[in-house]
Structure to design on (667 residues):
C-alpha cells in the first residue's frame, strides 16, 4: 500500500523530469522559462518532503523568484520575433515522448536492479528541528561561519564583475534604437 | 513543522486558481464576440502603429536584475543570522554574532558603494 | 447534525476548511468590492465631488454593478497577442498575493471555547517559516506583470512591464532589509511568534522598528505599483502600461490582484509593526484588560475584528495617498529604492544588532 510520501515523491519527480524536458525541447524561450519555474517549485516541494523547509523556501525565493526573473528580463530584452524563432528550434512531440520514455525506462531499470530503492524511507525527523530555519542558522553561524563570510566575498566579487561588464557596455556605442 | 502544514496552502491555491479560471471562462461565455480589425490592432493612443516593431531595450534592466539577485542572496544569508541572533546574545556570544554579522554586512556594503560610485545606480535606477 | 460536526474527529476538519473559506471569501469577495467603492468615494471627496451614490444606498452596490459589467464585456483578443500567456497573466496575477493569506494569523490561539482538544492557531497554514514564505511568494508577483506586458506584443506594454518589474524587485530588497530588522527584534520567522513578541511593546514604538517601518511603507507602495510609484501604469504617459491591451474581466482580474496585494502588504505591516490583533501597546493586551479570548467559541471575533480594523486603516492610507501625492519620476523612484532605502535598511540592521548586544535591548 503506497503511502503518501511515496506518492508525493514520485509525482514530484515525474513533474520535475517532465518540465526539465520541456525546458530543453520547447522552441520559445519564454515557455522554457515558465517550465523551469515550475521545475524549481516542484524541487522546493521535494525539499519539503525531505524535511528541509528552510531550503525549500529559499529555493523559491532565490531561484524561482530572483534568478528566473533575470532570465525573463533577458528574454524580454532580447525581444525576439516569434516569426524568427519559428518551430525549428524545438523538437517534435514524438521525439519528446521518445526521450521521456527512455528516461522512464532507465529509472524503472534502476529501481528493479536495486530493490532497496523501493523500501519505505527511514522515519523522517518530522517533529524535530532538523531542516528548520533555526537549525540551519545555527549551523551556518557556528560550523560554517567562514563559509558564510566567504559567500559574502563571492557576492562582492560578482557585483564587481557586473560593474565591469556594465561599464564596458556603457562605453560601447549604443545599439541602434536603444531605449531606456 | 510538519509537511502537512502545507495542506492549507494547496487548498487555498486550488480555490484561487479555480476562481481565476472561472472568472475568465465566465467572461468568455458571457461576453459579446464582435472582433473587428480596428479593435484588435495594438493600442497606441488611437493612431496607427508607428515606430520600429522590435525595439532593443536598455541594458540597465539587466543590471537591476543582476544586482537584485546578488543583494537578495545577501538578505537570504542575513535572515538565519538575524534569527539566531538573540540566542547568541542570551548565551553570551553576542559580540561574536555581532562582529560576524557586521563583517558580512560590511562586505556587501562595499559592493553597494562600488556600484554607487561606478554610477550603476543612476538614471534608470 | 450539530453533534456530528462537533465530534472530535470531524471538528478539526470543519475548522480547517472553515478558516480557508473565511479568509478566501474575505479576500476575494469582500475586500475587492469594498475597496473599489472606498477608492472612488475617497477620490471623489478629495477632489471635492460626491462620487458614486446612485447604485444602492451611498453607492455601495456600485462595485457589484462594475463586476457584472466587466463579466459581460467582450472578451477581446487583440491580433498580435500571444494567446496562452495573454490569458495566463491575469489568471496568475492574484494568486501569489492571495497565497500569502495562508500564513497570516488573524487572531490569537484558540480552542474555540473548549471545543477543540488543543489550542489551534487562527492561521490557514501554521508554517514555521511563515515570513520567508511571504517573501518568496511576493517575489513571484513580478511574473504576472512581466508576462502581461510581453504577451500584449505592444511596445508600450513591454516598456511598462519592464519598468514595473524592475521597480518591484528593487523595492523587494528594501522590504527585505526592513524585514531582517523585524526578525532581529522578534527572534523568529513565524508570523505568529512575531506578533507574540510584541505583547509588551509594538515594534513601531521602538527606534529600529520605527525606522524599519519608514522603509517598509514606501516599499509597500512600490510593490503594489500604487501612487506615488505608479509610473509604469501612468495613465498619461505610457498609455496604461502593461495592461493596455487588457479589457473586460482580464482587466478586472488585474484590478482584483492589485487590491489583494495591497491587503496582503497591509496585513504584513500590521503584523510586523502594530502588534497584529493585540488591543493596545504597552501591555494592554486583551488578556490585560480582562477580555478572555478563549471563553466562548466566538470570542476570537473581537481580536480578529480589531486586526481587520488595523488592516483597513492601512488600506485607507493607500487610497488616501493615491489621491494626495504626485507621482515620482522613474529615476527618482529607483534612486530612492537603491540609494536611500537600502542603505538606511542596512544601517538599521547594524543598529538593532548593536542595541541587542551592547545596549541590552531596544
Amino acid at each position: 500500500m503506497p503511502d503518501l510520501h511515496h506518492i508525493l515523491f514520485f509525482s514530484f519527480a515525474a513533474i520535475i523530469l517532465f518540465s526539465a524536458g520541456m525546458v530543453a525541447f520547447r522552441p520559445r524561450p519564454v515557455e522554457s522559462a515558465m517550465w523551469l519555474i515550475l521545475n524549481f517549485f516542484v524541487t522546493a516541494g521535494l525539499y519539503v518532503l525531505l524535511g528541509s523547509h528552510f531550503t525549500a523556501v529559499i529555493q523559491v525565493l532565490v531561484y524561482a523568484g530572483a534568478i528566473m526573473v533575470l532570465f525573463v528580463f533577458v528574454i524580454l530584452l532580447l525581444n525576439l520575433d516569434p516569426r524568427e524563432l519559428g518551430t525549428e528550434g524545438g523538437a517534435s512531440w514524438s521525439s519528446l515522448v521518445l526521450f521521456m520514455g527512455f528516461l522512464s525506462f532507465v529509472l524503472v531499470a534502476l529501481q528493479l536492479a536495486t530493490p532497496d530503492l523501493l523500501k519505505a524511507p527511514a522515519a523522517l525527523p518530522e517533529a524535530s528541528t532538523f531542516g528548520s530555519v533555526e537549525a540551519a542558522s545555527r549551523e551556518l553561524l557556528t560550523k560554517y561561519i567562514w563559509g558564510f563570510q566567504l559567500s559574502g566575498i563571492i557576492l562582492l566579487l560578482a557585483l564587481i564583475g557586473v560593474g565591469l561588464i556594465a561599464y564596458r557596455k556603457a562605453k560601447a556605442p549604443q545599439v541602434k534604437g536603444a531605449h531606456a | 513543522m510538519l509537511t502537512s502544514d502545507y495542506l492549507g496552502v494547496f487548498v487555498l491555491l486550488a480555490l484561487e486558481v479555480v476562481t481565476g479560471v472561472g472568472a475568465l471562462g465566465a467572461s468568455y461565455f458571457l461576453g459579446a464576440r464582435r472582433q473587428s480589425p480596428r479593435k484588435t490592432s495594438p493600442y497606441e493612443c488611437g493612431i496607427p502603429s508607428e515606430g520600429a516593431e522590435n525595439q532593443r531595450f536598455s541594458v540597465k534592466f539587466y543590471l537591476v536584475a543582476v544586482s537584485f539577485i546578488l543583494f537578495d542572496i545577501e538578505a537570504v544569508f542575513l535572515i538565519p543570522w538575524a534569527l539566531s541572533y538573540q540566542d547568541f546574545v542570551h548565551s553570551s556570544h553576542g559580540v561574536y554574532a555581532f562582529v560576524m554579522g557586521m563583517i558580512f554586512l560590511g562586505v556587501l556594503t562595499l559592493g553597494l558603494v562600488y556600484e554607487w560610485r561606478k554610477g550603476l545606480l543612476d538614471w534608470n535606477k | 447534525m450539530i453533534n456530528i460536526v462537533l465530534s472530535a474527529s470531524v471538528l478539526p476538519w470543519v475548522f480547517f476548511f472553515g478558516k480557508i473559506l473565511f479568509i478566501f471569501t474575505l479576500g476575494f469577495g469582500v475586500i475587492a468590492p469594498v475597496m473599489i467603492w472606498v477608492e472612488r468615494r475617497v477620490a471623489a471627496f478629495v477632489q471635492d465631488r460626491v462620487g458614486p451614490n446612485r447604485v444602492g444606498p451611498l453607492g455601495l452596490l456600485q462595485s457589484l454593478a462594475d463586476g457584472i459589467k466587466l463579466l459581460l464585456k467582450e472578451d477581446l483578443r487583440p491580433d498580435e497577442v500571444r494567446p496562452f500567456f495573454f490569458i495566463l497573466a491575469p489568471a496568475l496575477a492574484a494568486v501569489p498575493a492571495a497565497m500569502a493569506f495562508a500564513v497570516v494569523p488573524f487572531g490569537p490561539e484558540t480552542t474555540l471555547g473548549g471545543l477543540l482538544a488543543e489550542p489551534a492557531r487562527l492561521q490557514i497554514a501554521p508554517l514555521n517559516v511563515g515570513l520567508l514564505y511571504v517573501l518568496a511568494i511576493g517575489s513571484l508577483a513580478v511574473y504576472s506583470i512581466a508576462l502581461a506586458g510581453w504577451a500584449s506584443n505592444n511596445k508600450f506594454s513591454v516598456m511598462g512591464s519592464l519598468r514595473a518589474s524592475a521597480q518591484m524587485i528593487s523595492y523587494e530588497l528594501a522590504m527585505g532589509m526592513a524585514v531582517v530588522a523585524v526578525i532581529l527584534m522578534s527572534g523568529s520567522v513565524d508570523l505568529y511568534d512575531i506578533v507574540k513578541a510584541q505583547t509588551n511593546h509594538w515594534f513601531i514604538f521602538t527606534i529600529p522598528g520605527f525606522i524599519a517601518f519608514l522603509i517598509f511603507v514606501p516599499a509597500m507602495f512600490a510593490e503594489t505599483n500604487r501612487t506615488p510609484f505608479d509610473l509604469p501604469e501612468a495613465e498619461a504617459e505610457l498609455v496604461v502600461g502593461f495592461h493596455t491591451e487588457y479589457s473586460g474581466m482580464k482587466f478586472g482580474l488585474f484590478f482584483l490582484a492589485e487590491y489583494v496585494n495591497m491587503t496582503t502588504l497591509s496585513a504584513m505591516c500590521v503584523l510586523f509593526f502594530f502588534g497584529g490583533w493585540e488591543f493596545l501597546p504597552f501591555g494592554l493586551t486583551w488578556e490585560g484588560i480582562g477580555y478572555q479570548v478563549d471563553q466562548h467559541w466566538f470570542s476570537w471575533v473581537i481580536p480578529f475584528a480589531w486586526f481587520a480594523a488595523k488592516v483597513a486603516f492601512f488600506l485607507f492610507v493607500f487610497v488616501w495617498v493615491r489621491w494626495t501625492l504626485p507621482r515620482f519620476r522613474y529615476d527618482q523612484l529607483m534612486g530612492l529604492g537603491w540609494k536611500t532605502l537600502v542603505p538606511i535598511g542596512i544601517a538599521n540592521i547594524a543598529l538593532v544588532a548593536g542595541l541587542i548586544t551592547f545596549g541590552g535591548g531596544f
